[in-house]
Amino acid sequence: MADDWDDLVLDEDFIRSAETSEPSARARMLAARWRQESPEPQPWRSDEPPAGWFFSRRRKRWGRR
Q: Which of 11, 33, 15, 31 is nearest to 23 (CA)?
């Protein structure tokens, strides 16, 4: 009884030719969360700078008074 798996070689070429890939753990987590409750729409770029932005604090100039 010949088995089809006897002649199969699992080398690097075989692995790289695979057409499917598993999503990352974060992608799976977000997909599960979004199935339960869809995310709020977010603007692509906000007009407001993010919290703690570099220019939000007054910059000190050394040597000048």
A: 31
What is the three-state SS of the chain?
Answer: CCCCCCCCCCCHHHHHCCCCCCCCHHHHHHHHHHHHCCCCCCCCCCCCCCCCCHHHCCCCCCCCC
Q: Give the pLDDT score at 26.
A: 94
Spatial distance between the Cα atoms of 49 and 40, rounded to a whole number of angstroms: 19
pLDDT tens profile 21-46: 888 999 999 999 999 998 888 777 76
Token representation of residue 40: 């709020």
